[in-house]
Specification:
Layout lengths: L1 E10 L2 E11 L4 E5 L6 H8 L7 E6 L2 E2 L5 H7 L1 E4 L11 H8 L9 H11 L1 H5 L10 H13 L5 E5 L7 H16 L3 E6 L2 H7 L2 E6 L2 E7 H5 L2 H8 L1
Parallel strand pairs: 3-8, 3-9, 6-7, 7-8
Antiparallel strand pairs: 1-2, 1-4, 4-5, 9-10
Keywords: ATP-binding, Nucleotide-binding
Protein name: ABC transporter ATP-binding protein
Amino acid sequence: MLKVENIEVYYGAIHAIKGVSFEVKAGEVVTLIGANGAGKTTIMHTTSGIIKPQTGTITFDGKDITYTRAHTIVEMGMAQVPEGRRVFAKMSVKENLEMGAYSRKDKGSLEADYDMVYERFPRLKERRKQLAGTMSGGEQQMLAIARALMSKPKLLLLDEPSMGLAPILVDEVFNIIKDINKDGTTILLVEQNAHKALSIADHAYVLETGKVVLAGEAKKLLNDDAVKKAYLG
């Protein structure tokens, strides 16, 4: 579904991403793990069209999207849940969900999708008229995921979904990610909580200073001594 080949990204003179390649097959959960500053978010932004690579190619669903605009990529079926949630603080929960569906052509089926989202996230139904900025971090994370789902993505990009959440909420968010995948959405997950990410993923790529230094089946990497030492404590 997604193939990233040899991308190079610079911020001015800083060489942020150095020849990174990875792929995500339909139906999989693939995770990118690594320390702060490894380049995980830059890769996400490059994949979703927010940043353009200097070299390399990105293919989504058989089409070259390397220089496609971000909003067109959303219309093609890729949605990103950004790091730090980025909900529209002064809009209600319902209005945030409407923003997620802005690119949809099938407006007639929106009501069924609101019901689907509310079923998956009952707290959002309770708070649908509440301003997003007044909700807790965990509720905002659920809203950010729900907002992305309203675009009906084939591929969902999740950037640090557990960041800043209490451990009990981290478990809840990862259970939601598993359920979304079971329902047929392919997932690319960037996460600092390497143990959690590897425990739900099919394949994983380990990043260090803008390069992939290790790749393989997630379960094998979970038991890899080098990964354990560097990321799992």
